[in-house]
Amino acid sequence: MTIEESHPLTADSEHPLPVRLLQPHLNGLVAAFAAPAMCLSAADGQIRRGGVAGFWVQDRRAISELVLSVDGDEPTFLSRALVGGAGNRFEGACFNLGSATPDPTLLVTRSRQVRDGGLDEQYVVRSYDRGPVRFRLVLRAAADLAEMAEVKSGARPAPLPALPAPSGLRWSGRKGAAVVLAADPAPHAVDPDRGRLSWDLDVEPDGALTVSLRASLVGEGAVASVVRQPGGGLVSLRAPLVQAVDPRLGRFLERSVADLDSLRLVTSERPEDVFLAAGVPWFLTLFGRDSIWAARMLLPLGTELALGTLRTLAACQGRAHDSRTGEEPGKILHELRAAAASHELWRSSGSGRLDLPSAYYGTVDASLLWVCLLHDAWMFGAGEAAVERLLAPMLRCLVWLGDALEAGDGFVSYVDKSGNGLSNQGWKDSHDGIQFRDGRIAAAPLALCEVQAYAYEAAVSGARLLDAFGRSGSARLVELAASLAERFRRRFWVEDDHGPYPAVAIDGSGEAVDSLASNIGHLLGTGLLAAGEEQLVARRLGSPELDSGFGLRTLATSAAGFNPLSYHGGSVWAHDTAIAVAGLTRATGDAARLTAASLIEGLLAAAESFEHRMPELYGGHARLSRGGPDPYPASCRPQAWSAASSVAVLSCLLGLRPDLPARRVRLAPLESEVCLAAVSGLRLGHHELSLRLDREGSVEVAGIPAEIEVVVER
């Protein structure tokens, strides 16, 4: 996203030229986070002013600068490491200190941990000099108490004046204050005018000294009023243990689950219900669609997260019609923040303004996906009492579905009625996210292909739940799903030189938006398509137009608007590819399974190039032309549903399809280069299971009670 502001070219210019302010880039930044707090720094650990770097709590930047120097020089960067999701460690060397030698004799280890809404840093200086070394360690600190929305829009807030505090510095603003306080030892000098804390230190040969400090937000805004991290290890996530010929999957799982554990949040009103924040740094809060998809992918690790997500969203379910917020009766919200947010952004007609209230409902699919998550949690063994208590909000979602179909001439569609909300309200929510093959931007109201698939699946899943719990209304839902599938078959299928495929959408004039896009992967496995139609989609997904070698492109290379670094117009999103893989493993035919295996290999290659901390999205260039995917400059990293795709990949490799209400678990292992040999740490209901697999397709399962049938399909 970009914004423009008037800026004079010279002091006497009569007509100032527009200067474009860019959304800050995230390339090269290293994150440590324990939601809703996070720290973003350069690769060497220094927090330098500019962009989005800093220590943040609940979308407010507490510290905008924290730079370490030793005798006037910054340590020379050597290495860094991620320590779980909440920590980082940086190694540096100090030259021109101690004995006269070309080699460094002082090494500095900077350890960072985000915990309890604060930032803890520890600096250990170790000497390998032959004699004692005296030096001055200085920390330069600043704060601007900026809002995330203004920084994301490209603003560069000025730092606030610093004030002295006991063993540290303090900055005050309209909505609170920030502090940096030395824990041990106390600084020898505090200089608020230059924002500096100084220590004069002596280190003996083969000795070490440690300086510790803590940064935090205090006063108003210090306590997360909407979301905060759960305590006591509630619903702590543990990575499954994997033995495989290809070690990349195990590394991807380990890193991803550690990150996901640090993305856990609860609302102040429902502290017992855990969900996942969407991503660092832009979306460190509840997002309906993102949190639902992440919880759905993580069902093999247990159902508690899914139930917490469902209950939290149900508590915010729409009750009335409000065009400003997008609220409608039965609708599940899009995002929840502590305060309203305003952004400058590009629209199809040029720049515009995005004004989002703290509770915003501008999503067309979250209500449908909520029903699908409830059904899947039930299949994975969620307790009947917990599921039954959620049937009432499920029925409200299904009533919303019926109303949406009636209002949308038989399809679920969207249009922004406020004029200041999201112009696109599916998962591709950028202004040009939905476009024709010739590059024209599709005009709302828009009925997306994948949303119709979610609607079909939600109706069928809702019918199953109503039947299982002795409620009426299932026949009407089954009929609704069947008629939707027939309408979809008549209206959505288009054709090019390679044959038929589903259009990405139907626009406001009733025209099929004919671009070939990754959205069609979301149709698989929902039941909307017939077997032959699934095979047509599978072949398209495996074509070089969509498969980049690192995952699915969001838009095919054949489209006029294709750009490998466009947010939704040619880039690759890991969760999007994982959803398609899940559908492919449920589709009929060898082509679907071969495509699934190829896409999995692409995801593992991409994850490896990003140190297994999978970003929100990355470039859609062809793999043959480069060693790894190009990063997208403003991509969140990590992102919940990107990290959760690691567990989705594991589930697809196993072909895990539980139906615990029917006391049955199906396994259909996917033949791939990963070559799984053993998996442990998966959960179905109250049972923890482990599996052993051989190359002939045999599977041994332990941890499942005898009354549950295990069916292995080959």
Provide keyphrases for this structure:
714 residues; alpha+beta; Beta-galactosidase, Chain A, domain 5; eight-stranded antiparallel β-sheet; four-stranded antiparallel β-sheet; disordered N terminus
Explain how this protein is built:
It contains 13 helices and 38 strands. Mean pLDDT is 93; it is low at 1-19 and 221-225. Among the domains are: 2-218, Beta-galactosidase, Chain A, domain 5 (Distorted Sandwich); 317-506, no CATH class. It has an eight-stranded antiparallel β-sheet with strand order 8-9-10-11-18-15-14-13, with no helix packed on it. A four-stranded antiparallel β-sheet has the order 3-4-5-6. Strands 7-12-17-16 form a four-stranded antiparallel β-sheet, with no helix packed on it. The radius of gyration is 26 Å and the shape is globular. It is of the alpha+beta class and 714 residues long.
Radius of gyration: 26 Å
Strand count, sense and barrel status of the largest sheet are: 8 strands, antiparallel
Read across the widest sheet, the strand sequence of neighbours is 8-9-10-11-18-15-14-13
CATH architecture of the domain at 2-218: Distorted Sandwich
Distance between the termini: 47 Å
The percent of residues in helical segments reads 10-25%
List strands and helices in order, with pairings:
Blueprint lengths: L1 E6 L9 E6 L7 E5 L2 E5 L12 E4 L2 E4 L1 E6 L5 E8 L3 E8 L11 E10 L2 E10 L5 E10 L5 H5 L10 E3 L2 E6 L2 E9 L4 E3 L4 E8 L4 E11 L8 E2 L12 E4 L3 H15 L1 E4 L7 E2 L9 E2 H10 L6 H12 L19 E2 L4 E7 L2 E7 L2 E2 L5 H14 L4 H5 L2 H17 L39 E2 H20 L5 H18 L1 E4 L2 E4 L2 E2 L5 E2 L17 H11 L32 H13 L3 H20 L30 H15 L2 E3 L4 E4 L8 E9 L2 E7 L5 E4 L6 E4 L2
Parallel strand pairs: 34-38
Antiparallel strand pairs: 1-2, 3-4, 4-5, 5-6, 7-12, 8-9, 9-10, 10-11, 11-18, 12-17, 13-14, 14-15, 15-18, 16-17, 19-21, 20-35, 21-22, 23-24, 24-27, 25-26, 28-31, 29-30, 31-32, 33-34, 35-36, 36-37
Helix pairs in contact: 2-12, 2-13, 3-4, 3-5, 3-13, 4-5, 5-7, 5-8, 7-8, 8-9, 11-12, 11-13
